[in-house]
Amino acid sequence: MSAVVVVHGGAWAIPDDLAKASVDGVKAAACEGFSVLKKGGSALDAVEAAVKVMEDNTVFNSGHGAALNSDGEVELDAIIMDGRTLASGAVSSVKNIANPVSLARAVMEKTAHSMLTSRGANLFAESIGMATVPTDALVTEYERSEWTKHKTYAAGVMEDFNSQWAHDTVGAVAVDCAGNVACATSTGGIRNKMVGRVGDSPIIGCGGYADNSSGAVSCTGHGESILKVTLARLILSRVEQGKTVAEASQMSLRYMSDRVCGAGGAIVVSPSRQWAATFTTERMAWAAVDQDVLWYGLNPKERFKEQVSQ
Ligand code: GLY
Predict the structure, then answer these.
(1) Contact by Cβ (8 Å): 74, 135
(2) Best mutation site among 169, 170, 193, 217 for ligand 1 pocket (most ligand atoms within 8 Å of CB)
(3) Tens digit of pLDDT for each residue in 242-289?
(4) Tell me, what's the pLDDT at 154?
């Protein structure tokens, strides 16, 4: 059976000057995830690899280039989940870690817990010898200047994610050759968020979920809205009720919009290799590799394709 990987670089009103870099970034991440799958790697390996590429790319709000909190500091959240066992690992409010998705995976694989936060997550990183970086090394000039401009930003409504104030999250989902699914999501959260604010991204069933019996989801968008509707799990419930992954994503995002005025996006893959990339914001950079074809888009209803370069 063939493998599929889908990635997103965040659902928001991506300005034209970031459009090309965002699309190039998700294409590179999807190709990295696919190359892991092609070499026989697991879905879990593929989503971690794809998300790391985006955490290292300053165009995205995660890892290097993450949004800053009200103190002007980076606080990162991430989750990873294995659809084979329902094991998950997450970190929230971590600093000094360039790839929080890998720390989340270590929480899953090396502790008896599902989530570590703040200082505890950093202490754990130290205990396993994970390299730290100076906090300021993750701060880009672009983010510092946006943060300065939007210090009075009031987080909370749909318009935020349809404005150019938001800057949201990366994620990946994959199904491997054995039919196992996995998801990973990583973010700096909402710009100018309160210190200690945790959004949807590291919360199981909200920012992501993976279950071999239905599929894997990674979400992006307004965290407080996603939390209210447990978006990732909601999408998979609808898949379990017989909807296609595209129908389930569209219905669930529409429900979030109608019920709590929240905007966002989701990527989904099923064990039978259906996949979808859906959003209710103005734009979301996404890419997928399915049978050596690279699909990608940015604007609603856009779906370009090209052959994966070998
Ligand atoms: N969706 C990311 C956040 O709200 O933190």
Answers:
(1) yes
(2) 169
(3) 999 999 999 999 999 999 999 999 999 999 999 999 999 999 999 999
(4) 53
**What are the structural domains of the chain?**
4-307 (3.60.20.30)
One-letter identity of residue 179: G
The answer to whether residues 276 and 239 touch, using CB atoms and an 8 Å cutoff, is no
- Structural contact between residues 269 and 215, judged by C-beta atoms closer than 8 angstroms: yes
Which residue is closest in CA terms to ligand 1's atom 5?
189
Ligand 1: which of 76, 190, 194, 279 to mutate, most ligand atoms within 8 Å of CB? Answer: 190
Active site residues: 169
Q: What is the pLDDT of residues 146-171, one digit of tens each?
A: 888 777 555 444 455 555 556 689 99
Spatial contact of 161 and 225, defined as CB atoms under 8 Å apart: no
Tell me the pairing of strands 76-82 and 208-211. Answer: unpaired
- DSSP line for 122-190: HHHHHHTT-----GGGG--HHHHHHHHHTTT----SHHHHTSSS----EEEEEE-TTS-EEEEEEE--S
